[in-house]
Every structure is written in C-alpha cells, then in structure tokens.
Amino acid sequence: MGCLEALKPEIILSQSSFKEAREYIKKNVREYHEVEPGYRIFDVHIIGVPPLYVGVEGENLIFPYTKPCHGTFVVKVAGGEEIARLRAGKK
Description:
Layout: E1 10-16, H1 18-28, E2 31-35, E3 40-41, E4 44-45, E5 52-57, E6 60-67, E7 71-78, H2 82-87
Antiparallel strand pairs: 1-7, 2-5, 3-4, 5-6, 6-7
C-alpha cells in the first residue's frame, strides 16, 4: 500500500464517518464516480462502506481516505493520469 502523505493531500474534511465523507463528495463535487472498496488511486487503496465516491474537480481527485485509529478524511490530491483511468471505469 502506498503512502497518502507522498501525494501531498489537502484535507477537506477530517475525522468523519464513511457516510459523512460520501455525502460531502456527493453534495460538493459536480463530477463523482462510484468505486468499489479497494479501488486504487496511485498506490493508495480506498477502504470503506459502499457506496464510495471519488470526485473529479479540475485536475484534482477528491476521495475518502481512512487512516486506522484516526478515522476517515476527505482529501484532495493532484489527479494526473488517474482521472482518465477513473473516467474509463478501470480498477
């Protein structure tokens, strides 16, 4: 598993539940895609209770990230080639 810190994330929402993270993305990000638990963004795997949403905002990805013992966060990172992969529906 990769390290989220290597992606230099902007934390948008901290210490939230899976539901709160999902609702934040659904309400605040125009383009979002439903992914399965375990979906990989770069080398970071997303875990949680479905449905899980990954948003696209410009050149950035917005997604929930759960850090054991610290809770779930909604983070924003530069998307690069991952945006095209997400839009294509690839795992």
